[in-house]
Write a structure and sequence with these properties.
Layout: E1 12-16, E2 19-20, E3 39-46, H1 50-53, E4 60-66, E5 74-83, E6 87-97, E7 101-112, E8 121-134, E9 137-151, H2 158-163, E10 174-190, E11 193-214, E12 217-242, E13 245-264, E14 270-286, E15 292-309, E16 316-336, E17 339-350, H3 354-357, E18 368-379, E19 384-396, E20 399-402, E21 409-412, E22 416-430, E23 433-446, E24 462-470, E25 476-485, E26 505-516, E27 519-526, E28 534-539, E29 542-546, E30 551-559
Parallel strand pairs: 1-4
Antiparallel strand pairs: 1-2, 3-4, 5-6, 5-30, 6-7, 7-8, 8-9, 9-10, 10-11, 11-12, 12-13, 13-14, 14-15, 15-16, 16-17, 17-18, 18-19, 19-22, 20-21, 22-23, 23-24, 24-25, 25-26, 26-27, 27-30, 28-29
Length: 560
């Protein structure tokens, strides 16, 4: 999203039914516990969105919304999948609803050896929930649990990659994860006002063991991280009609408490963060004559961070308090019957997390801020539509991993800028055929400091995707997708003097499925051209993490 390249996951927020899945750590949100059968829709918001979603929402937001239970129905599913690299997965789910009460549960077990050597991965997950629904709202409780074991193959030099991208540079490193989350949801409508709140508590244990060789002796270094996060997010939404206009007012509070204990040979860091946020947003719509919309929003968020580590090379005992303000202004209008034009501007921000502040000399990292601007238009009906957007993000103190400092640390960069153009199109080209395509061109560069005018690392300048889907009557379905990514700078090439670039690549994926009664049989192929490529490489001609080669999968699913 928006040209953040390898740093994208830290510059976007993932939300599940109002609960923030992105956390105060470098590890990504755990999505394996979300049964796809419970998902109603996935919304992608591009660009700065800190007013509603808080820190980290400069690149955009991925919002996952689950289904409301239908009344008086029961359903179930069992699915088996197998593929190359030792892939085997079993999934099962069941749901039952009555007039106002519903229960559902889902389990999955995934095992794979993966494309590279010493890269085995096991994932076992459970998700179960209950909800009570009335005409005015609902109350729901959900439990999610995941257990993962993984082997780490390490990075390769360019010579190693060209000789054999499947090889591992580490033969013993491994890790694991245990995560449990309980979430309660409340929604209720009184007149024209909707009240809602989410209360979520998550406990997670991450462990890793790495082997290091000094003086010909190889020895392990183990670490365990125990973290907890509690979030409470009440809000209200009021709709008011007056003088032919519709006014939507949203006000909310986000309260998050996160803490982590570390047990390792080199650290005993105890870290915590409390954040408190208040946000307000108002949107007015005039449906006639031009479907005009105007929205204003503001968010104020404060952070209280504390870190204590008596085992650090220089003992740490620090407390940092920081506050940030995000705002946005949006407007749109139909200029012609099928042409809508819009503009938005705002300020978004990202806070350094505990992983980024750890093991670094000097003062804690500053907050990253961005001035965001976007102009766009959509043309055409919903089944044949073209969209175009130009955008700019002027970023100060961008938080980024710099492998050129010491042995590599997270730091605040000199001012940077992302600006570019996005095009997307969708069309139903025949009764059974649908085509979607998108192109992003982004110029990511330093705007000040010794590297002013030079390209930002690990950001492809151009990315294009296209997907063709076929869904005739009779139980058949198929789709094929192509993605192309341009070349990019290696991760330590801030001066643009490496003399080489990470090569661009094109991949093709496809899937065919056939339904026979309550059964569905499918064949899928990933990276059909068996392209040997990589998009993460953190030193010039090295530090390479290869992407997967070609893989075929077959699956069978039974619905009852």
């Amino acid at each position: 999203l928006r040209g953040f390249g390898s740093n994208s996951s830290q510059n976007m927020v993932v939300v599940l039914d109002g609960v923030r899945m992105s956390e105060n750590e470098l590890s990504g949100p755990i999505l394996s516990t979300i049964p796809i059968d419970t998902v109603e829709r996935i919304e992608i918001v591009r660009g700065g969105a800190s007013v509603l979603y808080g820190e980290g929402a400069t690149g955009g937001v991925i919002q996952i919304v689950t289904k409301r239970a239908a009344k008086n129905e029961g359903r179930g599913m069992v699915s088996l999948e197998a593929g190359q690299f030792g892939l085997r997965e079993v999934r099962a789910s069941a749901a039952r609803s009555w007039d106002a009460f519903a229960l559902d549960a889902s389990v999955s077990d995934l095992k794979t050896d993966n494309y590279r050597d010493h890269n085995r991965f096991d994932n076992r997950s459970f998700s179960g929930g209950m909800q009570w629904t009335t005409d005015a709202g609902r109350v729901a409780v959900r439990v999610d649990s995941a257990r993962q074991d993984a082997e780490f193959p390490g990075s390769l030099s360019l010579l190693q990659f060209e000789a054999n991208p499947e090889q591992a540079s580490t033969s013993f490193d491994f890790g694991g994860l245990e995560s449990d989350r309980v979430t309660a949801l409340f929604e209720h409508r009184i007149g024209s006002t909707d009240f809602a709140a989410e209360l979520s508590h998550r406990e997670k244990t991450v462990s890793a063991t790495y082997y290091f060789t000094f003086g010909g002796v190889t020895s392990p270094s183990a670490a365990t991280y125990d973290s907890r996060q509690t979030q409470f997010s009440p809000r209200l939404r009021q709709l008011t009609r007056f003088d032919g206009k519709l006014n939507e007012f949203v006000a909310g509070v986000d309260l998050i408490r996160w803490s982590r204990d570390t047990t390792s040979m080199f650290s005993a860091a105890d870290a915590s963060q409390d954040s408190k946020a208040l946000y307000l947003r108002d949107e007015i719509r005039w449906n006639a004559p031009h479907n005009t919309r105007l929205a204003l929003g503001v968010r104020r968020e404060s952070f209280d961070k504390e870190t204590v580590d008596a085992l650090a090379f220089v003992p740490v005992d620090e407390r940092v308090k920081q506050s940030q303000t995000g705002w946005e202004v949006q407007a749109s209008q139909d200029m012609l019957p099928l042409l809508n034009v819009y503009a938005k501007a705002g300020r978004s921000y990202r806070m350094p997390n505990s992983d980024e502040n750890a093991f670094r000399p000097g003062a804690p990292l500053k907050a990253q801020t961005s001035r965001d601007l976007e102009l766009g238009a959509t043309f055409g009906p919903s089944d044949r539509q073209l969209g175009a957007r130009v955008f700019r993000h002027k970023i100060r103190d961008e938080i980024f991993y710099d492998p050129t400092i010491n042995f590599g640390v997270n730091t605040n960069l000199d001012p940077t800028r992302r600006q570019g153009l996005e095009l997307d199109a969708k069309a139903r080209i025949a009764a059974d055929w649908r085509l979607t395509a998108s192109v992003q061109h982004v110029k990511a560069e330093f705007t000040d400091g010794p590297n002013a005018g030079r390209e930002m690392v690990l950001v492809p300048e151009n990315v294009a995707t296209a997907r063709l889907s076929w869904a005739p009557v009779g139980g058949h379905s198929a789709d094929i997708g192509v993605q192309w990514a341009d070349s990019q700078r290696y991760g330590n090439d801030f001066t643009n003097n490496c003399g080489a670039r990470i090569p661009g690549y094109t991949t093709v994926d496809a899937r065919y499925a056939r339904k026979v009664g309550q059964w569905e049989f499918a064949l899928a192929g990933l990276n059909l051209g068996d392209k040997q490529y990589y998009s993460n490489a953190f030193v010039c001609r090295g530090g390479i993490y290869p992407a997967d080669g070609r893989q075929f999968r077959v699956s069978a699913r039974y619905d009852f």
